Amino acid sequence: MVKPKNMVCLWFDKDAEAAANFYAKTFPESAVHEVFRAPGDYPSGKTGDVLTVQFTVAGIPCIGLNGGPAFSQSEAFSFQIATDSQEETDRYWNAIVGNGGQESACGWCKDRWGVSWQITPRVLTDALMAGGAEASRAFAAMLEMRKIDVAAIEAARRGQG
């Protein structure tokens, strides 16, 4: 594996490997590449514990660090996954929320490790980029949603919502 020059580093308490495996099975262009074990004891672990995991999420190189409970995830960082249909939107949303995650507003949810995700149908971003009244209607519809409803966004774009 070629080592990327730049990677997203995600801090986990102790479950970086479980999270990486979940991402790899859930999203296309995702894989777990390497698991590194601690060569010695460290503040939040022991020799032989999983220290870091190199993985890819939807084509983005990442490293998961089992750094202990000192830091937690926040909405200041999120993965945004563009979807092409309600079925694809439902699949990712349900995988994250149904695996111990939680729903939020406007297409946002968190996985069980606290990592934030935006599951965003392209129809929504297309509507917002269109500008004008079409964008305003789609935006107003989105503000009322948790998981994005593709049909409702399409209806709002047409002024039928």
Shape: elongated
Output the number of helix runs. Answer: 5
Fill in the CATH topology of the largest domain. 2,3-Dihydroxybiphenyl 1,2-Dioxygenase, domain 1
Content of β-strand: 25-35%
The major sheet is characterized as: 4 strands, mixed
CATH architecture designation of the largest domain: Roll
CATH class bucket of the largest domain:
Alpha Beta
| Count of separate structural domains | 2
Show unreliable segments: none
Name of the CATH homologous superfamily of the largest domain = 2,3-Dihydroxybiphenyl 1,2-Dioxygenase, domain 1
Number of strands: 8
* Rg of Cα set: 18 Å
N-to-C span: 49 Å
Describe the structure.
The chain has five helices and eight strands; from the N terminus they run βαββββαβββααα. The protein is of the alpha/beta class. The chain folds into two domains: 7-71, 2,3-Dihydroxybiphenyl 1,2-Dioxygenase, domain 1; 73-161, 2,3-Dihydroxybiphenyl 1,2-Dioxygenase, domain 1. It has a four-stranded mixed β-sheet with strand order 1-4-3-2. β7 and β8 form a beta hairpin. α3 packs across α4 (132-143) and α4 packs antiparallel against α5 (150-157). The protein is elongated and about 60 Å long.
